[in-house]
Amino acid sequence: MTRRKIAVAWVALHVLFFTAWSWHEERWVGKDILVQVRRRWGGPSVLGKRIPLQYEFSTPKELGKLGAVPPQGSSVWVVLTKDGEYHVARRVYAERPETVGPGEVLLRGYRRKAKWIDYGIESFYVPEGSPRPHGKLTASLRVAKSGRARLKQLYLSKTP
Description:
- It is a single chain.
- The chain has one domain (31-156).
- It has two helices and nine strands.
- It has helices at residues 2-28, 60-63; strands at 31-39, 49-52, 54-55, 75-83, 86-93, 105-110, 123-126, 137-143, 149-156.
- The radius of gyration is 20 Å and the shape is globular.
């Protein structure tokens, strides 16, 4: 009888864990967006490694055209709006804005270095045995209401 109780408790614990995990993932979801990747990987030995990615909103120089870029070591808040099928940067803030308009997405980054802004979506693992990539890269991001982004998938010429 004791073994049975332990087994039931073990199964219940797993059900509870996976239910909580899926609930957390659902709450984390803010909005799914597509952005264009500016920089692609190159060289013959990239497969089986993390590849660096760059977006139009990855450099202070590009964001400087939209507003004052915060100094190194501080947070950066970028408002993205849909332009065609992709989201593009429209405004930049040093502090989190009170509200964003309808259809706008707020993305939070951190300016760690003088030349780059880190959003946590700057690399993607390419498994060995993948076909050699050729074409335009698009990133599918999931952006939470907090502004944190997660890189869901890369598309090569609109194909996963």
